[in-house]
Design a protein that fits this description.
With about 250 residues, the protein is α/β, with parallel strands linked by helices. Helices cover about 50% and strands about 10% of the residues. Strands 3-2-1-5-4-6 form a six-stranded parallel β-sheet. Helix 1 runs parallel beside helix 6 (about 145-160), helix 4 (about 95-105) packs across helix 6 (about 145-160) and helix 7 runs parallel beside helix 9 (about 225-245). It starts with a strand and ends with a helix.
């Protein structure tokens, strides 16, 4: 049921946490694991926590050098965060995120859930690559969760939602969601366009682009809509260039 869902562990410090997270994945029927720049990857230390049933997940885990590399091919990316406020607005709970994730999976799209390092979580730069953010509510007395606990809680909500009804067949290509790569291309193109018309401040465009990216992350942009928006950006940039000549 969660065959198109990927768990991405970014900068994980302890191999044992990888093993216990893999075990949580088997509980919920998720088998796609990617490790991004693990601090000290040691498969032998991970295996005892994975137990026999999750050994296969650990052995087949992909290893990527960067988060962008790991996200290639995914239509939606959900990052996990313990911090809220500032640019981290519109954060979802696991139960609120699950219907969105499962809907995407039922459409035949690949979805990724990113978990940051145990000690600091994902930075602002890393969350910029995520479509939406998920926060697990906890007691104020102890807000710290073990990595595998966080993995289990979010996957459980997805698994539970996936039980509601069987998957629907995927729609035609033009109705498919854009991939992570296409979303990044569109964001870069839109940033260039907004700079060309002086909507963004040139001194720090990445910073001023953050609310725009947050807005875009809420949209499920289809591939035909991607082509439309790219065409609009091209036309606006051409008009801006002609205005500069006058």
């Amino acid at each position: 049921m969660l065959s198109n869902l990927s768990v991405i562990l970014f900068g994980t410090k302890y191999p044992e946490n990888v093993g216990s997270s893999a075990r949580a994945m088997t509980n919920m029927g998720c088998s796609n694991l990617t490790l991004v720049s693990p601090a000290s990857w040691d498969m032998e230390k991970a295996m005892p926590l994975a137990t026999v049933k999750a050994r296969d997940i650990v052995e087949k885990a992909a290893v990527a050098n960067t988060l962008s590399e790991a996200l290639i091919g995914h239509a939606k990316v959900y990052g996990t965060t313990a911090r809220t406020g500032g640019w981290r607005k519109g954060v979802l709970t696991p139960s609120a995120a699950a219907p969105l994730i499962v809907k995407q999976l039922r459409a035949g799209e690949k979805v990724a859930i990113v978990f940051g390092p145990e000690d600091r979580g994902l930075t602002n730069d890393e969350t910029q690559l995520c479509s939406r953010l998920i926060n697990i509510p906890t007691s104020n007395e102890n807000s710290s969760l073990n990595l595998s606990q966080a993995v289990l809680i979010i996957l459980y909500e997805c698994f539970r939602k996936a039980l509601d009804k069987p998957y629907a067949p995927a729609g035609p290509p033009e109705e498919r969601s854009t991939s992570f790569e296409e979303q990044e291309i569109l964001a870069a193109n839109l940033q260039e366009t907004l700079l060309a018309i002086d909507f963004l401040k040139a001194d720090n465009p990445d910073y001023w682009m953050m609310p725009v990216r947050r807005f875009m992350s809420r949209l499920d942009i289809k591939r035909n809509e991607f082509n439309l928006l790219m065409g609009i950006c091209r036309q606006i940039k051409w008009i801006a260039s002609q205005a500069d000549k006058n």
